[in-house]
Design a protein that fits this description.
Layout lengths: L1 E5 L4 H12 L5 E6 L10 E5 L10 H4 L4 E4 L10 H22 L4 E5 L13 H15 L4 E5 L3 E3 L9 H10 L3 H7 L4 E3 H14 L5 E2 L4 H4 L5
Parallel strand pairs: 1-2, 1-4, 2-3, 4-5, 5-6, 6-9, 7-8
Length: about 220
């Protein structure tokens, strides 16, 4: 597979990049992000832009890719709806619309969140925005679109969240997280498992377009 990856320096994106570079089915990864990942690998080409939604001049590199794994996102804590939607919705759709126009044969795998509101009318701001984004993505003329909705995510291999309170939370609970994940796999995944699930969707597709947290362990098992 030839992949495009957005958000490679975030907690989820770091996991996806790591697994992509380890996966023998992946031939190349084009990473587009605001800052370099710090990784070097023969499969990896990185493009750093202050505005990762600006894809001008990249058309030749973006065409002919098998899938886009979109991991870019922000926390909603302390933000008004317009601020949160600027990245979570508008930037996502700006990128996705451009890619669909360039290559509708591509698969688009979007990291959403458990509890996203597909009705778009709920009282929870972030859930409405996520739901609107998912619905808009499903209307785009891609070959396939998947919205993956993880709940808790356990960082592995030294990966850390860039959101301070999230990083602190996971660091405090780190000793207990493996036990919690084994006991409650539908509520807690890890960066490896989530990445493998996304890669499986990119390569093989899936039976449903919304991947709930309970579906991630099965898709992300070591031997798909």
């Amino acid at each position: 597979m030839r992949l495009i990856l957005f958000g490679a320096t975030g907690m989820i994106g770091q996991g996806v990049l790591r697994e992509s570079l380890r996966d023998g089915r992946v031939d190349s990864v084009l990473s587009i992000s605001r800052r370099p990942s710090g990784r070097s690998h023969p499969k990896l080409r990185e493009i750093v832009r202050a505005d990762p939604g600006d894809l001008s001049g990249l058309e030749a590199e973006l065409k002919g890719r098998d899938a886009c794994l979109f991991c870019l996102g922000i926390s909603s804590v302390g933000l008004r709806e317009a601020q949160y939607a600027a990245v979570t919705e508008h930037l996502t759709l700006r990128v996705a619309t451009a890619l669909a126009g360039l290559d509708p044969g591509m698969t688009f795998v979007y990291v959403s969140a458990a509890g996203s509101d597909a009705s778009e009318r709920g009282r929870v701001m972030w859930a409405r925005v996520r739901g609107r984004t998912e619905n808009a993505l499903f209307r785009l003329p891609f070959k396939r679109v998947y919205a993956v909705r993880p709940a808790g995510i356990r960082p592995r291999h030294g990966i850390r969240s860039r959101t301070p309170y999230v990083d602190a939370f996971y660091r405090v609970l780190a000793p207990a997280l493996p036990v919690i994940q084994r006991a409650l796999p539908s509520f807690l995944t890890d960066t490896d498992e989530l990445a493998r699930a996304m890669l499986r969707l990119a390569g093989e597709g899936g039976r449903v377009r919304v991947i709930e947290a309970r579906d991630i362990p099965g898709l992300g098992r070591t031997d798909p």
